[in-house]
């Protein structure tokens, strides 16, 4: 690997509140890696932690509150503000992590100032349209995303199914780069039998969902599958970890499920490792970090056969894949594991073995090599264009 002195990276993200969602967890892992390698970096976001909690310089971008989404804000980027801060840092690459207004402004700034821009496709926004019953939103979403990402030198996509979809939509410069998992933080060693007894796990299997409580995670499918199972058996408990605007609706749909709210750190590690089956029906994920965290914790995952998880789960080997948006099939797949200890144990062991190969260091080493390639190619192209002109 080349000297880290050759890189100076400016990042742009929708939020930098620690642990807020899968994207921020990835970014803080990356930030730790960069600081260990002494690679200079700065972050721009409408949501940032207090100064004393910032492991790298972070700049708060002006923003507006988003109704019903208090933890997120809509950035109102000011080009003069960006120019001043970016020029002071003098990056040789810009990396956006959201297609929001801030990401758009960052790419626009990069293009105008001859700085290569790359992106990571974390969130599959066009797929959200069906949940809000606005068909035109999907078309507009793809048009916007195509225009934004085709102005980037490279677009990193964490799963092959999503990469193929982006390719079909005419998005260029795609590169596959999966996410990793911290196998020390997410590990079967954190299993706590006392915790299991507290939540009715004695003599019962614990089903676990971790993620934001929003309709675009296909939680209506989870609720319907829960009702199907609840009408047939009493040997399981469903636990949901996360917050979101539909929590009250879900509590009405699943009155006997346990809602633990937002959890992080050791408590989250314990919840994962003390559960049995991870249930994740979302079809809108670009990857699904929580599924890999569950696998590293020794759980058997049941996920939709669409989106991120379908790219790394081998059906009946490292997990079970259910028909997308089919609650009956989701319930059937869960029952297979509830009724077959040998199958569940085999999947759990295979999932754990796979997760242990997906370390963040390996993933980030590949990302850094990619940065060097982008910078070198961009500089060569710029020199060529200058000579031709």
- What do the pLDDT scores average to? 91
Helix content: 40-55%
Read across the widest sheet, the strand sequence of neighbours is 3-2-1-6-7-8-9
What is the string of SSEs from the N terminus onward? EHEEEEHEHEHEHEHEHEHEHEHEEHHH
Outline the structure in words:
The chain is of the alpha/beta class and 389 residues long. It has two domains: 4-180 and 359-388, Rossmann fold (3-Layer(aba) Sandwich); 188-355, Rossmann fold (3-Layer(aba) Sandwich), CATH 3.40.50.2000. Strand 11 (236-241), helix 8 (247-253) and strand 12 (258-261) form a beta-alpha-beta unit. The strands form three sheets. It has a seven-stranded parallel sheet with strand order 3-2-1-6-7-8-9, with helices on both faces. Strands 12-11-10-13-14-15 form a six-stranded parallel sheet, sandwiched between helices. Strands 4-5 form a two-stranded antiparallel ribbon. The longest helix is centred in the last third of the chain and has 29 residues, at 360-388. It is built from 13 helices and 15 strands.
Features:
16% strand; alpha/beta; 389 residues; 7-stranded parallel sheet; elongated; Rossmann fold; 41% helix; 6-stranded parallel sheet
Task: Compose a concise summary of this entry.
This protein is α/β, with parallel strands linked by helices and 389 residues long. 41% of the residues lie in helices and 16% in strands.
Would you spell out the secondary-structure blueprint of this structure?
Layout: E1 9-12, H1 22-36, E2 41-45, E3 58-60, E4 63-65, E5 73-75, H2 79-89, E6 93-96, H3 101-112, E7 117-120, H4 135-149, E8 154-157, H5 160-168, E9 174-176, H6 193-198, E10 205-210, H7 219-230, E11 236-241, H8 247-253, E12 258-261, H9 265-273, E13 277-280, H10 289-296, E14 300-304, E15 320-322, H11 327-339, H12 341-355, H13 360-388
Parallel strand pairs: 1-2, 1-6, 2-3, 6-7, 7-8, 8-9, 10-11, 10-13, 11-12, 13-14, 14-15
Antiparallel strand pairs: 4-5
Helix pairs in contact: 7-11, 10-12
């Amino acid at each position: 690997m080349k000297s880290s002195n050759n890189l100076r990276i400016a990042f742009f993200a929708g939020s930098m509140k620690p642990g807020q969602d899968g994207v921020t967890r990835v970014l803080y892992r990356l930030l730790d890696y960069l600081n260990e390698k002494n690679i200079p970096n700065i972050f721009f976001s409408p949501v940032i932690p207090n100064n004393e909690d910032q492991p790298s310089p972070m700049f708060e971008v002006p923003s507006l509150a988003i109704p019903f989404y208090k933890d997120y804000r809509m950035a109102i980027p000011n080009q003069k503000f960006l120019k001043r801060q970016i020029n002071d840092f003098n990056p040789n690459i810009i990396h956006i992590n959201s297609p929001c207004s801030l990401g758009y402004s960052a790419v626009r700034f990069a293009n105008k100032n001859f700085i290569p821009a790359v992106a990571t496709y974390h969130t599959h926004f066009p797929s959200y349209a069906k949940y809000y019953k606005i068909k035109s939103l999907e078309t507009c979403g793809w048009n916007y995303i195509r225009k934004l990402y085709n102005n980037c030198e490279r677009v990193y996509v964490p799963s092959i199914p999503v990469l193929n979809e982006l390719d079909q939509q005419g998005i260029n410069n795609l590169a596959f780069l999966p996410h990793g998992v911290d196998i020390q933080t997410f590990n079967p060693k954190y299993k706590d039998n006392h915790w299991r007894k507290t939540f009715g796990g004695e003599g019962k299997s614990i089903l676990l969902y971790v993620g934001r409580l929003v309709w675009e995670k296909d939680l209506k499918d989870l609720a319907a599958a829960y009702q199907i199972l609840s009408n047939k058996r009493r040997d399981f408990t469903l636990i949901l970890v996360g917050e979101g605007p539909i929590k009250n609706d879900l509590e009405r749909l699943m009155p006997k499920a346990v809602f633990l709210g937002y959890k992080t750190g050791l408590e989250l590690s314990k919840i994962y490792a003390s559960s049995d089956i991870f249930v994740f029906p979302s079809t809108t994920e670009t990857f699904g970090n929580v599924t890999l965290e569950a696998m590293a914790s020794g759980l058997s995952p049941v996920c939709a056969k669409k989106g991120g998880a379908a790219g790394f789960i081998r059906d009946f080997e490292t997990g079970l894949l259910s028909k997308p948006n089919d609650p009956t099939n989701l319930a059937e797949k869960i029952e297979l594991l509830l009724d077959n200890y040998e199958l569940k144990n085999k999947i759990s062991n295979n999932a754990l073995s796979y997760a242990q190969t997906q370390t963040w260091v390996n993933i980030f080493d590949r990302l850094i090599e990619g940065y060097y390639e982008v910078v070198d190619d961009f500089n060569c192209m710029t020199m060529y264009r200058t000579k031709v002109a």
